[in-house]
Amino acid sequence: MTSTLDPATGCESATAAPCGALRRPAELARNIDVSGLVDSEGGLLDRAIFTDHQLYKQELRRVFAPSWLFLAHTDQFQKPGDFFTTYMGEDPVIVTMDKNRRIRAYLNSCRHRGARVCRADFGATRNFTCTYHGWAYDLDGKLVSIPNQDGYPQSFDTGDWGLVEVPHVESYHGLIFGTWNPQPVSLREYLGDMAWYMDAMLDHDDAGTTVVGGVHKWVLEGNWKLAAEQFATDWYHVNMSHASALMVLSPDKKPKTEIVHRTGRQYVGPNGHGAGFPVHARNRFNAQQVHDWTDYDALRERLGDARVEGPLTDGHATVFPNFSYLPVIGTIRVWHPKGPDRMEVWAWTVVDKSMPPEVREAQRLYNLRTFGPSGIFEQDDGENWSEVQAISNGFITNRVPLNYQMGMGSEQEDGRYPGKTSELYSDAAGRAFYGHWRDLMNTPAWHEMEKR
């Protein structure tokens, strides 16, 4: 379903393509100018962007609907009929492989009364059937079965009532993204220089990557941007928030100061993407078995010294708006928004297909122990985000701006790393993240620009 603004009436129309149109009152689509809430140039942020319900609804319209959003990994689809259900913003979607082995995605909502047509998390099927009234759809999204169809008027055409399809689905090195935007830039163009940093995790050899251990899901009290921002920009919290975890990992039970006090770079993407990484790191946050198995000479030949000595080490990254990953840990995750003050985290462990079973298992277990739902690092992060959110609704608290000024003016192109980079300890990628968020929030999306 797409929404268009009728310039003649000032009302929004919801068009269930290809049949019919409905009109919505204009007040359902009110938009707020957020220019005064994000001063990315001055490094100040109004925390109302984490608490305001109207801003959250605007995010769904103007940030999530037009953006490329992570859906799944190609390894989750081996044969026609394999499916995985997920979300794009708060819209439920089904990702599936059709009979021609093409990956497609549909809004997981029956066109009759709106219930989900697939309630399983994943599996294999020939049809998606709504358990409410029995409308059934095939792998092409076509409506193929209706109980009591004779009761409908002659004008009723099943071809008009198929599942609403996500118009564009593309993949990059096994990662599947989709967008509701009918005329987007390509996924590769959207990623820009960020693709170079992603390759440090995804392009180790021609075999590609695979998923091990399924999908882990948990709920946190906190705005989704708090998590996405941290993975884009924040190495600064490591020495304080993760001190106890570093001691656990240290053989002598002392904090790993050589990990905390490092130099590095932080990629600052113009589309809100961000990545930080130490350089020339001697210690890596991965299972020893994985480290011993890795052929670093082969990686240098394939990826180059800059990537092997940088983002391949202990990096962190976010693809705007809500997909994040840690290259060495092997975790990829989505921060699904569930209101302004809650998020649902979905996390996968991704490894090289060329890894033998025992090395894959070592990486999976190390991932769970560090960044799984009860991981020693993950618990620290979740507690911080929930703490920030818990007090942000106070009247005075909500009026006090937040400081994002670390590393201001340090962004530069150094010729070694693509795009602009800042110091490792910097808020530069965070400023860019919120600057892009602000620009999208203030820009009418395609559904507001279309002519009826």
**The CATH homology group name of the largest domain:** Naphthalene 1,2-dioxygenase Alpha Subunit, Chain A, domain 1
CATH class of the largest domain: Alpha Beta
Q: Unreliable stretches, pLDDT < 50, 5 or more residues?
A: 1-20
Shape: globular
Per the CATH scheme, the topology name of the largest domain is Naphthalene 1,2-dioxygenase Alpha Subunit, Chain A, domain 1
Number of domains: 3
- Report the C-alpha radius of gyration, rounded: 23 Å
What value does the average pLDDT take?
88
The total of helices stands at 14
Helix fraction?
25-40%
Which architecture of the largest domain would the CATH scheme give at its second level? Alpha-Beta Complex
Structural class: alpha+beta
Please state roughly what percent of the residues sit in beta strands, choosing from under 5%, 5-15%, 15-25%, 25-35%, 35-45% or over 45%.
25-35%
Distance between the termini: 13 Å
Largest beta-sheet details: 8 strands, antiparallel
Tally the beta strands: 24
Task: Please list the strands of the largest sheet in the order they lie side by side.
Answer: 16-22-21-20-19-18-17-24
Describe the protein's architecture and organization.
The protein has helices at 53-64, 187-191, 194-202, 224-233, 238-241, 243-249, 257-260, 288-293, 296-303, 305-308, 357-371, 378-391, 428-441, 446-449, and strands at residues 2-6, 11-15, 22-24, 38-39, 44-45, 69-73, 82-88, 91-97, 103-107, 122-124, 127-129, 136-138, 143-145, 168-172, 175-179, 209-221, 264-268, 274-278, 316-319, 323-326, 331-337, 342-352, 402-403, 420-423. The strands form 6 sheets. The protein has an 8-stranded antiparallel β-sheet, with helices on both faces. Strands 9-8-7-10 form a 4-stranded antiparallel β-sheet, with no helix packed on it. A 3-stranded antiparallel β-sheet has the order 1-2-3. Helix content is 26%, strand content 26%. Residues 1-20 have low confidence and may be disordered. The chain is globular and about 75 Å long. The chain folds into 3 domains: 2-68 and 444-449, no CATH class; 69-171, Rieske [2Fe-2S] iron-sulphur domain (Rieske Iron-sulfur Protein), CATH 2.102.10; 193-199 and 207-441, Naphthalene 1,2-dioxygenase Alpha Subunit, Chain A, domain 1 (Alpha-Beta Complex). β21 and β22 (342-352) form a beta hairpin. By secondary structure, the protein is an alpha+beta fold.
